[in-house]
Structure of AAA ATPase central domain protein:
Amino acid sequence: MKQTAKLRVTYRMEDNQLQPSPENASRTEDALEVVAKTRQAVDEPHDVMETPPNLQQLINELNRLVGLGNVKELVREIRAYVEISRRRQSFQLKNDGLVLHMVFKGNPGTGKTTVARILGKMLAELQVLPKGHLVEVERADLVGEFIGQTAQRTREQLKKAMGGILFIDEAYSLARGGNKDFGKEAIDTLVKAMEDNKNDLILILAGYEQEMEKFLRTNPGLRSRFPIHLNFPDYSCNELLDIALMMIKERQYQLTAGALDYLRRHLQEQIDKNTSNFSNARLVRNLIERAIRRQALRLVDKRIYGRDELMQIMREDLMATQNEVNVWTMPD
C-alpha cells in the first residue's frame, strides 16, 4: 500500500538558512504527525483473521450441524465485519455499530435454539457481546395476568439476558390477543430495551414461518428493528439420516444394514405425510432414544454378549407401533 501526503509550506531566510514560516510551523507539525501515524498503521503487520482456539471450537461445532448453509454464511459475515472494523479503527476510520437482532423462522427441530446458543458464545468470543449466554423464554414468561405484571416480568427476563441473547420462542403469541392483550405491553418493553441496550443485548424472535410473517406484518415497526431474517427449512430425508447417524455415533452405537434401511424408509414416509407439525431432528432424536431403550430391553436377560452386540441397533429396535409414531411426530 502506498500513501502519499501533500504538504504546502512557505519558508523564509533566517541566519542564511531556510526555515518554515511561523504561521506554517504548527500546520507542518500536525501534517507530519498524520503522516507518521499513517505510515505506522501501514507498516504494522495485519494477520489474516487469526482464530482463537475457543472460537475455532465453536465454528467447528456449527459446521458439524447438518445443512443450515445460510446460517453458516451469516456467521462468516459477522466475523469478517468485526475484523474489518478493527482494521478501520487502526486507520482512525468511522465504524457504525452492528445491529444483530434476528428473526428465526422454521418448524420445530430445525436447529433454531441450537444455532442461537452457539451464536451467542461466538459473539462473546468476538467481543460483540459481553457474556454471550442464552436465555430462552416464551409468552408465559413475559406476559402477566394483571395490569403492571407484564412490564415487570419482561424486564426481569431482559435483566437475565443482559450481555447475551434473549430468545423468544413462538414470539407471534405475544400479539395473539390484539391491541387490548397484555402481550402488546411486552412488545413495547422489549423494543425500548433494544434501543437502550444496543451493545449489551440481542433479541431473537423465533417461530413457525407463516405465523412469524403474519406477526411482523401486523407489527410493522418490529420488522425494521430486526434486520436479520433466517429461514430454517425442514430437513430432507438424507439430512435427517445424517443427523441420525451422528447421534448414533456420538452414543457409540451402530445401525445394522436392516436398521439403516428401515430408518431411511420410515423417515421418507414421515416427510411424505407433509404434516404441519413435522418435528425434524426431534423426530430423529426420539426414534434413536427409543431404539436404544428397546435394544437394552432385548439384551438385558441375555447371559452371553460381546462389545459388538452391545453397540448394534437392529431393525426390530427401531420398529414401532402406529401410536408411537404419532407421538414422535408431535412437537415438544
Notes: The radius of gyration is 29 Å. Residues 22-43 form the longest helix (22 residues). The CA atoms of residues 260 and 304 lie 25 Å apart.
